[in-house]
């Protein structure tokens, strides 16, 4: 097995998340092992109604004041009638494997999404945002 030079990671934003890195490893080591199985993985973690819930979201009418020129895109969605509860077992196990402590379904989903894609997602309680 060859070594992977990880200096590449600092110059390749597509490798910040697990999905990007697994695709890269499949390209570096073709036929040795299948590192990426994103489609099957996404099917497992989306058995709930999270995508249906996000599909019913609306663009927020709140004014977003970005105080830096380094943020190129910020999108806020409003989602109503959600339930905050304990995550299902599969999601909690994935988070434990990543060294994270599960909190609730929405926080856990945002943490897992960040590790998989390298893109941060945050959920806020609208009643607490000014």
Characteristic terms for this protein:
single chain, mainly alpha, 130 residues, 6 helices, two-stranded antiparallel ribbon
Domain count: 1
- Rg, rounded, reads 17 Å
Number of H/I helices: 6
Give the strand order, joined by hyphens, for the main sheet.
Answer: 1-2
What structural class is derived from the secondary structure elements?
Answer: mainly alpha
- First-last Cα distance: 53 Å
Average pLDDT level: 77
Shape: globular
The secondary-structure element order is HHHHEEHH
Q: Biggest β-sheet, characterized?
A: 2 strands, antiparallel
Percent of residues in β-strands: under 5%
- Please bin the fraction of helical residues: 40-55%
Describe the structure.
The protein is mainly α and 130 residues long. The chain has one domain (12-121). It is built from 6 helices and 2 strands. It has a two-stranded antiparallel sheet with strand order 1-2. Helix 5 (89-97) crosses helix 6 (105-117). The protein is globular, with a radius of gyration of 17 Å.
């Amino acid at each position: 097995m060859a070594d992977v030079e990880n200096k590449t990671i600092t110059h390749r934003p597509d490798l910040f998340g697990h999905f990007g890195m697994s695709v890269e490893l499949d390209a570096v080591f073709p036929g040795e092992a299948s590192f990426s199985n994103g489609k099957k993985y996404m099917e497992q973690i989306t058995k709930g109604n999270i995508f249906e819930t996000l599909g019913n979201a609306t663009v927020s009418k709140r004014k977003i004041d970005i105080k830096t020129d380094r943020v190129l895109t910020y999108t806020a969605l409003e989602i109503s009638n959600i339930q905050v509860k304990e995550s299902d077992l599969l999601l909690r196990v994935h988070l434990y494997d990543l060294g994270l402590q599960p909190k609730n379904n929405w926080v856990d989903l945002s943490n897992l999404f960040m590790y998989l894609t390298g893109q941060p997602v945050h959920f806020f309680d609208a009643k607490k945002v000014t």
